[in-house]
Every structure is written in C-alpha cells, then in structure tokens.
C-alpha cells in the first residue's frame, strides 16, 4: 500500500544581527513525505533536517544586513543551478556526439537538455543577483 503522507514541522529560528544588535526570527518549514504509518521515522527525518544547516538567506529586518551564512548559501544555490546547467549542456552535447557516431539524433532530448541548460543558467543568475530572502520579523519582547 502506498499511502503517503506529508509530515511537516515549522521551526522558529532566532537570530541576532551582528551589525545593529536587533533580535529577529523567521519560520523554517521542514517537511518530508513518508508512508502514513511511519510517524516515528518521519520524526527522525525532520529532526535530522532541523539539525542540518539551513539554506535560507536571511537579512536583518531593521538594517538589512545579511545573517552569517547567507552569502555562503547564496553562492551554494547559485553553484547548484550552475551545476545543473552544465549537466544539461553536457547531456545535449553528448546527444550531438552520439548522433555523429550512430547517425541517430534524438532531437527532442537534445532540445530539452539545451533548454534545461539555458533555464538553469537563468536560475543561477537569479539566485546570484536576486536571492529569495526568508521573511524575518523582529522578535517581540
Ligand atoms: Zn541589523
């Protein structure tokens, strides 16, 4: 039986700004998909995600300074997209080479891989220049 359920957990991450000292927080949503009865396993997986480094890009809501790790996460997500772009470009080149060897050109796959390369390159530029910043709010009290 493939009765899957999505288990999720929202964790409030607390931060303190290194520049202006403001204390703020943001919500980090963790989720995992598992067979419905594997509640304990889902709990373990969510705890593992919680313990792992967050990939969120966080800025101080008061002065706009990036939290430590934000720049690294930004470069990581840019690198990831660039990697996918290179992978797609390689796949499309591979198909062209294959066509040269076998005389059979899988033009649809080559086109899809080529478009994928362009798409991921675009996403890499967006990740670098316009990173998705996590919504932060000042901590009350
Ligand atoms: Zn600040």
List descriptors.
3 helices, alpha+beta, three-stranded antiparallel β-sheet, 141 residues
In short:
With 141 residues, the chain is α+β, with helices and mostly antiparallel strands. It has three helices and three strands. The protein has a domain of 60 residues.
What does this structure look like?
There is one protein chain. Helix content is 49%, strand content 21%. With 141 residues, it is α+β, with helices and mostly antiparallel strands. The protein has a domain at 71-130. Strands 1-2-3 form a three-stranded antiparallel sheet. A hairpin with a 6-residue loop joins strand 1 and strand 2 (23-35). Helix 2 (70-102) packs antiparallel against helix 3. It is flat. The model has no long low-confidence stretch (mean pLDDT 92). The site of zinc ion has 8 residues, from loops.
Major sheet details: 3 strands, antiparallel
Mean pLDDT: 92
Could you give the order of strands across the largest sheet? 1-2-3
Q: Give unreliable regions as ranges.
A: none
Shape: flat
Count of individual beta strands: 3
Structural class: alpha+beta
Output the helix-strand order. Answer: EEHHHE
The hetero molecules present are: zinc ion
Tell me the Rg in angstroms. Answer: 21 Å
The percent of residues in helical segments reads 40-55%
Distance N to C terminus: 49 Å
Strand content: 15-25%
> Helical stretch count?
3
């Amino acid at each position: 039986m493939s009765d899957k359920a999505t288990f999720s957990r929202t964790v409030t991450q607390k931060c303190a700004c290194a520049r202006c000292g403001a204390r703020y927080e943001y919500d980090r949503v963790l989720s995992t998909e598992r067979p419905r009865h594997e509640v304990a396993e889902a709990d373990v997986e969510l705890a593992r995600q919680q313990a792992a480094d967050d990939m969120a890009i966080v800025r101080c809501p008061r002065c706009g300074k990036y939290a430590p790790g934000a720049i690294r996460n930004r470069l990581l997500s840019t690198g990831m997209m660039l990697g996918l772009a290179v992978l797609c470009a390689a796949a499309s080149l591979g198909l062209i080479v294959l066509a040269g060897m076998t005389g059979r050109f899988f033009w649809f796959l080559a086109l899809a891989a080529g478009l994928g390369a362009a798409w991921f390159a675009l996403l890499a530029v967006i990740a670098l220049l316009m990173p998705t910043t996590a919504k932060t709010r000042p901590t009350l009290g």
